[in-house]
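Input chain follows. Return structure tokens only.
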Amino acid sequence: MAADSFEYEVARGARNSADPHDDPGARCVAGGRRAVKETDPSRIPIIREWEYASGRVIAFSKIDSCLGAIQIADNRLLRGAHFSMFASGVPYDTVQFVAAMTAAGFQANLPILYFGGGVQDWLPGLGMNAYMGVAPFAHPVADAAQRQWIFEMDNGAFTYHSMA
């Protein structure tokens, strides 16, 4: 299967998981938290601001001036994390970024793909740290339109899909 084959399920899951009391600031202060929203029936994690998850298929809520991070862990496993500005009161909270990347299991010795509407702002804003200095990911994902994303890693085949 390719990532785009999950679009309907992820769109439905994102709509159904909308929470007016969502508090990304609390997740930021905690150094990120494991994603708690998922789709039905495939149980694809929907990674919201200051959340992380891993799996064969992962989805991101809208990356709106946010930063997304993806890492291929092995032939059937992806790691993902989603960051937003000002959640802790500062635009680029490097301490909490590093804490969340560590909690998510990202490895500083494997390439990481950063994507989102403001990647060029985020990279210098976060400064040099163990996760920002790693090799770039081989698949460029441009997100000027700030969309939702689905990523899949299936037997070494990496696919991704941008949702409107």
